[in-house]
TrEMBL record:
Domain Carboxyltransferase: 6-206
Domain of life from the UniProt record: Bacteria
Gene3D superfamilies: 3.30.1360.40, Cyclophilin-like
UniProt keyword terms in alphabetical order: ATP-binding, Hydrolase, Nucleotide-binding
UniProt keyword annotation of Repeat present: no
GO-annotated molecular function: ATP binding; hydrolase activity
SUPFAM superfamilies associated with the record: Cyclophilin-like, PH0987 N-terminal domain-like
Name of the protein in question: Allophanate hydrolase, subunit 1
Organism: Croceitalea dokdonensis DOKDO 023
Length: 243
């Protein structure tokens, strides 16, 4: 398994940040997930491990970290990382309605990218996107792997209000707004199901490294899935992903 040059920095008294090369790709992410899996066995209880893009943050709010000792131990452990182990990852399929009622920018995006709206929808639903980060809002997935011909800059003037469930494009990424929020992504559709539920355990279904696919649905199907989501009976399609 390929090893990368990593750096370790203090992240306050109770955390350490391990940084991989500044790349957004599957190889780096897979290495991060492998090391996270290793550390979950090597570390004692009380640690939280947070992967994202090209970093892994380790947090222990119970004890301050001895920077020199702990950082050296992390480097030693990384060198000991053996052959690639199976890390459980899933592919989730989420419904999206690309109707212009929801996709406020879909006509403009299609025109800018020189596609028809149908071609844009076909391209957007043909890819399995990788969850590289979760943040900004609880449950907001930064999804990489967007086809190059769908890349489009953020809007020059962000909206003050983007509806919950809105699916957008920005740069090399796509994503779903899990709640009403300001935002500058180009909105091309809407997902009818709630993504983040504080009453559920866990409150969010996906993990870093999982895959997300979008399935185009009609307005009538959107309305049905929205009701199913509100009453808690909708379950996203899920299958194991072999990386």
């Amino acid at each position: 398994m390929k090893k990368y040059p990593i750096t370790i920095k203090p992240f306050g008294l109770h955390a350490a940040l391990i940084a991989w090369p500044d790349q957004v790709n599957e190889g780096v992410l897979e290495d991060i997930l492998q090391f996270k899996h290793f550390l979950m066995d090597a570390l004692e209880d009380g640690w939280e491990l947070i992967p994202a893009y090209n970093s892994l943050t380790l947090v222990n709010t119970c004890i301050p970290i001895d920077e020199n000792k702990f950082h050296g131990q992390l480097l030693t452990w990384y060198k000991q990382l053996g052959p690639k182990q199976a890390v459980q990852r899933y592919q989730w399929t989420l419904p999206v309605c690309y109707d212009s009622e929801f996709g406020h920018d879909i006509q403009e995006v299609a025109s800018t990218l020189t596609f028809s709206v149908d071609e844009l929808i076909t391209k957007h639903t043909a890819t399995a996107y990788t969850v590289y980060g979760i943040g900004f809002l609880p449950g907001f997935m930064y999804l990489g792997g967007l086809p190059k011909d769908l890349e489009i800059p953020r809007k020059q003037t962000p909206r003050l209000h983007v509806d919950k469930g809105s699916v957008g494009l920005a740069g090399k990424q796509t994503g779903i707004y899990p709640q009403d929020s300001p935002g500058g992504w180009n909105i091309i559709g809407r997902c009818p199901i709630p993504l983040f539920n504080t009453k559920a355990s866990p409150p969010f279904f996906a993990s870093i490294g999982d895959k997300i696919r979008f399935k185009a649905v009609s307005k009538a199907e959107y309305d049905l899935h929205k009701i199913e989501g509100e009453v808690g009976i909708y379950q996203p399609e899920k299958k194991l992903w072999n990386a």
